[in-house]
């Protein structure tokens, strides 16, 4: 390991920790397993010790903290990846330590050494060889279009378009998540939006590389995706995946390339405002789960709530933890790959919180949140519906067709 994975700002921030432990109280991983080793403060203190063990002058070297044994490294590394990167610790930290960025730097640091879960090699190989995280044939990225009720002849791959819909890997390949692109494509067609998919020219947004401590491989993905969107002559890019959206917002030079980007919740909000979506009554009690990357990450809390509340008949109820305090569903940070049981534990707490509101439906705005919560609800026979916002709007439009 080396300290080069960290910025000076991060080194200063680490030293500012007051050990108040508020971050541990709020961490969904700690709440699920009740073990201090998965807590942000444990991780931070370990990291501080590691820093002390490999920096400083002679006096510090004489009294320095002991370096970790291989076994201790293994345990520490495991706990670093038992984290959903939900950002709640960062949101809550009273001294403003950028904890989420720190966890990403720590993952990078571990990957530079031999102390990392070997599944990361699979993520790297899949992305470099097939350009999607699942090692699927990238030419099949748009095959879900064939499952539309009335698939257009061009399968939504147009040479030129005003808007590009960037689907993301999970929605493109996971059958459970494909309902989301099917819904959004249906809505965009009904609203007469001139849009295209990128098909095989869409590569993973690159988030799994950052989450896996492989940032140096990221730039190629940025360059390719920007060029693919420009090739369509598009001005706007729409994402139903909050992680793709956040990653574009934070790292892609979209403005320098004359592009505007929108999460689907924002785009639907605008279409509703422009009266392009005639929404009919739905008799439902709905609560909304803020996806971590859309809420705490991209700071979009209002657009999805406006869309839900624009549908007549819906009774909207908030969960006790909402907006910036929303509890993670357990699906982020590639956690499922490293510790599927922890994902299940976190998802269980989330479903219980949603049920406490009396809602019959949890709406979210993320394919990964839908997968995680729906899988838990189905396996445990919890009588609650889980829908993406696009599916909810599609439902309201379908009621219009039936009327
Ligand atoms: S990012 Fe979320 S899961 Fe990870 S340590 Fe912070 S609060 Fe816990
Ligand atoms: S909340 Fe911030 S200051 Fe408090 S223990 Fe956690 S990292 Fe340190």
Question: How does this structure look, described?
Answer:
With 403 residues, the protein is an alpha/beta fold. The protein has three domains: 3-116, Fumarate Reductase Iron-sulfur Protein, Chain B, domain 2 (Orthogonal Bundle); 120-271, no CATH class; 279-402, Rossmann fold (3-Layer(aba) Sandwich), CATH 3.40.50.11810. The protein contains 21 helices and eight strands. It has helices at 8-15, 22-26, 28-33, 40-54, 58-62, 70-80, 88-92, 99-112, 119-130, 169-173, 179-190, 207-211, 218-231, 242-251, 264-273, 293-297, 302-310, 335-338, 340-355, 367-379, 389-402; strands at residues 163-166, 195-196, 236-239, 260-263, 285-288, 315-317, 361-364, 385-388. A four-stranded parallel beta sheet has the order 2-1-3-4, sandwiched between helices. α11 crosses α21 (389-402), α15 (264-273) packs across α17 and α19 (340-355) packs across α20. One iron/sulfur cluster binds at residues 17-23, 40-41, 44, 93, 95, 97.
